[in-house]
Design a protein that fits this description.
There is one protein chain. The chain is of the alpha/beta class. It has one domain (about 10-50, about 55-180, about 190-255): Alpha-Beta Barrel (TIM Barrel), CATH 3.20.20. The protein has twelve helices and eight strands. It has helices spanning about 20-30, 50-55, 85-90, 100-105, 110-120, 135-140, 140-155, 180-200, 200-205, 215-225, 240-245, 250-255, and strands at about 10, 40-45, 60-65, 95, 125-130, 165, 210, 230-235. β3 (about 60-65), α3 (about 85-90) and β4 (about 95) form a beta-alpha-beta unit. The longest helix is centred in the C-terminal third of the chain and has 19 residues, at about 180-200. The model has no long low-confidence stretch (mean pLDDT about 95). The structure holds glyceraldehyde-3-phosphate. Glyceraldehyde-3-phosphate binds near residues 98, 168, 173 and 211. GO terms for molecular function: triose-phosphate isomerase activity. It is found in: Cytoplasm.
Length: about 260
């Protein structure tokens, strides 16, 4: 069944950007009117920029999010940021369980789920990332890994309005490599079936983003695939012109999906 959900085009700036990068954010805001009204747009800058980014985006339809939050609401957790703090700075969304967090900071799916519960409790829309490594794909385990991560990372109370899934094959992140359209279609259809089995009509309406080396040159093909309801973009979200070029492909594909 072809997905007709409202797409979300999201940028993850990772640990990139200082105050000067707000020029790129302002350029994205300036370019919004040229994009289809039927898509949502989100930039997740580093935590240090969220408040200023929120001010830059104020009055526009550009949404601002965080890249991580702590699972506890407050306390003696030096260096950490709570979901409430993200909201207080103007974030409406948060990315959780990115493979860089899972790999470099040993975040388990159980921890991701606890963070998601904390974020949802503070009213943040939560983007939960899942995806297999290259070794796992080569071993034919991509679907089972995604299934395990999805089951353990997404809270029981997930709803379509508040949870977004991002499928990011680890081997495609920052490498210039992407899965074939058939491989993306297979994984997204699998995730959709799992979401529907667990959440019923809410699972049918939950957006599933693709992430991993999305650029203007491949966006049209990737974003037109069934059950690909948008993109989570790393490197190509750092420059306004690249990000806007990716989002603009929805001029061509929204009517044909
Ligand atoms: O969160 C974004 C992903 O890690 C994708 O990054 P990338 O577009 O640089 O491959």
């Amino acid at each position: 069944m072809t997905s007709l959900l409202r797409p979300l085009v999201a940028g993850n700036w990772k640990m990139n950007g200082t105050g000067q990068s707000l020029e790129q954010l302002a350029a994205i805001v300036a370019g919004l009117d040229a994009l289809p009204a039927s898509i949502d747009l989100l930039i997740c800058p580093p935590a240090t920029l969220i408040e200023r980014a929120s001010r830059t985006a104020h009055g526009s339809r550009l949404l601002i999010g965080g890249q991580n939050c702590h699972e506890k609401s407050d306390g003696a957790y030096t260096g950490e940021i709570s979901a409430a703090m993200l909201g207080d700075c103007g974030a409406s969304h948060v990315i959780l369980g990115h493979s860089e967090r899972r790999t470099l900071y040993a975040e388990t799916s159980d921890l991701v789920c606890a963070k998601a519960d904390a974020a949802l409790g503070k009213g943040l829309v939560t983007i939960i990332c899942i995806g297999e490594t290259e070794t796992e794909r080569r071993a034919g385990e991509a679907l089972s890994i995604v299934e395990q991560q999805l089951a353990a990372s997404v809270p029981a109370g997930a709803r379509a309005a508040t949870v977004v899934i991002a499928y990011e094959p680890v081997w495609a992140i920052g490498t210039g490599l992407t899965p074939t359209a058939a491989e993306v279609a297979e994984v997204h259809a699998h995730i959709r079936a799992l979401l529907v089995a667990r959440y019923g009509s809410e699972g049918q309406a939950m957006r599933i983003l693709y992430g991993g080396s999305v650029k203007a040159a491949n966006a049209r093909e990737l974003l037109a695939i069934d059950h690909v309801d948008g993109a989570l973009i790393g490197g190509a979200s750092l420059k306004a012109s690249d990000f806007l070029a990716i989002a603009s492909v929805y001029h061509d594909i929204s009517g044909s999906r």
